[in-house]
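Budget justification, computational time. The allocation requested in the original proposal was used primarily to generate structure tokens for proteins on the priority list. As evidence of use, we reproduce two of the resulting records. The first is shown immediately below.
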Amino acid sequence: MNISGLIKRITPLCLKILGKLPQCPWSSVMHPLNPRTLSPKRLPIKIDVIETDGDLKKLRFNNKHNLWFPGTTRVNEDLWNEYLSVTWNSPVNSHYYFRDNVRIQPGDVCLDCGACEGIFALLALEAGAKKVICIEPNEVMIKCLRKTFFDEIRQEKILIYQAALGGCCGETFFSYDTSYPSYGIIGNADALHRSKIPLKTIDAISKEIKFDSIHFIKMDIEGAELEAIKGASQTILANRPKLAITTYHNAYDFKCLSFILESYQMTSHARGITLFGSKIYRPVLLHSPWN
């Protein structure tokens, strides 16, 4: 490892010792120093276009997972990294949603908040989930999800629900770029496409679709995670689900989410650490419960 790489790895630890990283727990700060993260063996890019249908195309990842995407989706290293972030079970991948006792068990009902192309939903079904509710605001990705999971929807293993998640119910705009389907933002952003969609709380969705119980909630919704958890209090208190929530979009998310979950008498554990385009370190992911 070169000097710059070493400095990058030890900087969070130095800042924590100096009291300058209150938003990052020690487990997060120590992650870059884990010897198992030094020489990761990444899978080489393997994405094949195996079918087209109008303005959509089906991609096969790693000779294993078949998913429909907008035809304008860029098939490149960024798309491969998005796939690996969900599927790659490696210490170096802080974005991996499963951890020790935060896993899907056979028969679980799961909420996939920010379902996008459905990679996590596929993994949930592979793990034996009874049903996955895919919540996604992007109208184009909703169309793709319905094609990818056509059979599973008929079998009632997958339910597709179009909405943006928040702390209240109403309407909002969702802005997105079909060439980069994993990203979108609530509001009138400068984007190629924009549509008006429902804004819903998880509690409202729970009452509307009337599922019996929720065992696992995965959430990656581009910085709206804190508001979405505020709108999920009844669901969380009633079900005590396992949680895997991204916290890298905003510097304060892990700390705020931890305080909320602590009020529910649930514990939180941080995974990884990142700057994510800013000068403030923050954990990548929150897992709960953690024993």
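The second record produced under the same allocation is shown here.
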Amino acid sequence: MYDRHRACKTCSWVAAAWLCWAATGSAVAQRTDLPEPLRGIGIDQKLDAQLPLDLTFHDETGKTVRLGDYFDGRRPVVLTLVYLRCPMLCTLVLNDTLRALRSIPLNLGPDFQVVTVSFDPREEPSLAAAKRAHYLEAYRRPGADAGWHFLTGDQAAIRRLTDSVGFRYRYDAQSDQYFHPAGITVLTPQGRISRYFFGIDYQPKDLRLSLVEASNRQIGSLADSALLFCYHYDPSTGKYGLAVVNALRLGAAITLLGLGLMMFRWIRMGRRRQATAVTDPDPELGVTDYFGEPRQP
């Protein structure tokens, strides 16, 4: 007997595998090597584009909120677009986001926020609340309760948000599921798109640097700023790579500084030895003053 649920689930796993592989590029929608059902789905980068912060959604309690409520001008925001009853890919996105967040020293809540928005208009705040409780418990750091938000909304608001981010997806009525890409977006505290990360393997170093960069270095440490001098974001891969020229410049500066400090130390040691030789002469030569003249008894 044909099991429609099992067939749909198998189809979802196959689609998820294709999209996880394909989303390593910057624009999945432009690829022609995808299966027919997945064509036209992907992420088009819109770096520095402004999100429509006037959009209204429902938070996990059912309260009507503005998207702009989560942008305070100080903390960057990680945006995850998922649908909460997704059988596979969305869970992988959220799980790997959680893994990366737990691996960085920055703290969810005090340093940055995460806004998870469902692109399925049929999903209710109660489902969002259950998902939120699960991920906050798994994060296990104080202050996170005010930092991770799960939103649901109507089709018009969802479509405006996904279009502004360049997130292309579509609903498949036969399987009652969505075909969609995998990835997360890092936003500035003012709601502008700063960085994209594709697929599901988000490297903690990349995520940390992107948050520091999106905040204009208002968060993070001096070491993070130094790393940003040596690493730059590559939009074609969605990763941070070594900036060879800057790394060489930094290495040369450190080398010159080290040589300068060594020379300064050698000069000081030489002067001390010279002063010691003048003020503390050989006793057999008699007692002299600083200028080498015999001292009067």
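A brief technical remark on that second record: The helical segments are 4-22, 89-102, 125-139, 155-165, 204-214, 222-230, 244-279.
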